[in-house]
Amino acid sequence: MDYIQLLQKRIQNVNESSIESSLFEEFFKLEKKILEMQRHQIEQGKGFDDNNLDSGSTLFKGEYAPSTSNFASLSGNSLTSKTAGNKYNFVWTGDFMGNFRMKRQNKGLELFSTGTGSGDKQEFFEGYTNMFGLDTDNTATIESEVMYYVLDKIFTKLYQ
After folding, report:
1. In the chain, what are the domain boundaries?
2. What is the pTM of this model?
3. Residues near 103 by Cβ (< 8 Å), separated by ≥ 6?
4. 48-80 pLDDT, tens per residue?
5. How far apart are alpha carbons 26 and 29 in whole angstroms?
6. Alpha helices for 3-132 (secondary structure H)
């Protein structure tokens, strides 16, 4: 068998389904890194669209009120300070930031937190429509890592 025929035979094993499967396998190997990037991005006040996080809620203004600042310092329950006038840092007890998850959603990935609660807390988080997902720089970093491994797998299949 000549080399061209051998490659044609082997390339039949490289189809859309096997590539997709390899992609998601690599994404989930990087899950810890992706979720850490998501945390850091939120701590920096950046959305997936490269804009600042901004609450669309009329109830929550996106920055700490003096009453919240006072309550946080008196209660001792907050993991970080809450300074009146500063943008929300999304850390109180750690439920939100400590419960990030990633799941496969159709042909993409969904990032979310199980710590968004219900009632006012849920409404608070729902106001941030650009919160979950990596920004352009973080996405490019992850995509380049994933593509390297996926292409390596494809070439391995071709040249075995």
Report:
1. 3-158
2. 0.79
3. 109, 110, 112
4. 999 999 888 777 777 777 766 666 666 666 666
5. 5
6. 3-11, 16-29, 31-43, 66-75, 119-126
